[in-house]
Amino acid sequence: MNPESCPALVLNADYQPLSYFPLSVWPWQEVVKAVCMDRVTILSEYDQEIRSPSFRMRLPSVVALKRYIAPARRPAFTRFNLFLRDRFSCQYCGSRHELTFDHVIPRSRGGLTRWDNVVAACAPCNLTKGGRMPEDCHMHPRIRPHVPSVQELQRNGRAFPPNYLHESWRDFLYWDSELEP
């Protein structure tokens, strides 16, 4: 097993991930450095070990920061965060393919590029709507565009787990889901 394939899940001091989407993971080098600087507590380890002539250590798979990092109060307005708010689906037809974004009130009609006027839209719906107002083309977003909270984006991110989840991470993720008996 290559150390490169041993990233560590990073939790805040309250044992919640710093981020769900993208999931807060660090490469093994960053984790070892944080352990040596006494900035994290190791909660779980891989079987993989690193060694030097005077040092050996199992690579951490889950760590928690010793100092709490307060999350951002407002999420940045980015394409990714917009898609995350809209759950990676077109707000007109529900498609998850060819996503782009649409100004509900077109820029040509004075619409601004901000949270309360932009929604995720598939390319076909975006072309169909074009520069028209929603009433003119009978295309209204499924969810009213709004400024999401950081918590809303985190909740939405939980619905889209990454491709790689090590088994040792599962106890620290999705704890709000129902446990099997």
Describe this structure in words.
The chain is an alpha+beta fold. Helices cover about 20% and strands about 20% of the residues. It has a four-stranded mixed beta sheet. It is elongated and about 75 Å long. The C terminus is likely disordered.
Tally the helices: 5
**Overall mean pLDDT score?**
90
Kindly estimate the percentage of residues that lie in beta strands according to DSSP.
Answer: 15-25%
Return the structural class.
alpha+beta
Strand segment tally? 6
Rg, Å, rounded: 21 Å
Helix content: 10-25%
Which residues form runs of ≥5 with pLDDT under 50? 175-181
Overall morphology: elongated
Biggest sheet: strand arrangement: 2-1-4-3
* Major beta-sheet overview: 4 strands, mixed
Our measurement of the CA-to-CA distance between the termini, rounded to an integer number of angstroms, reads 33 Å
Protein topology:
Blueprint: E1 8-11, E2 25-26, H1 28-36, E3 40-52, E4 55-65, H2 79-85, E5 99-103, E6 118-122, H3 123-129, H4 134-137, H5 150-158
Parallel strand pairs: 1-4
Antiparallel strand pairs: 1-2, 3-4, 5-6
Keyword list:
alpha+beta, 181 residues, 20% helix, two-stranded antiparallel ribbon, disordered C terminus
